[in-house]
Amino acid sequence: DQEMLALKQEALHLQEELQAVYQNGRGSSEIQLTLLEQPGREQLTQELEHNHYQVLHYAGHSNLGTAGGKLYLVSNKTGLTETLSGDDLAGLLVNNGIRMAVLNSCRGVYTAATESGGESEAGNLAEALVKRGIPAVLAMAERIPDEVALNLSRLLYRNLKQLYPIDLSLNRARQGLLSSYGSSQMYW
Hints:
alpha/beta, about 40% helix
């Protein structure tokens, strides 16, 4: 019941990026990827509780909202949208040792335009996660096209795979978006 996204394509891009071997003089790290296709709250919770992950990469829909924003999952029973609040997500991630959240979804953090638009009482996912102790959160401030989301993931993980630190990997990914779409687009 949500707008369709290129989630399969993003998963394939991530798999390809993480399996690629680089010959540029830098080492290559071992990053393992577990894919959950449209998990519901129960499946996501069980997966996080039974395994030892360091990073949650979420690709899908999200928005601002009360209780720390909203992340949209899919109910296993109905196939329709289930909402997971940012506060609930934060608790789930903190309790399971997640060190970084990559939210490749729309409106996971505030912008100046959002706050002046009268939604300042609405929370956001990034803020909810940081407040509960997740040390690193990457979130999108605005609505973003699928192509941009795919490029961001590809560039970020390509740099991490080449053993660049997270801050440099993100800077390089942002520069890639800036180069691809220009400074007039705020995707970077």
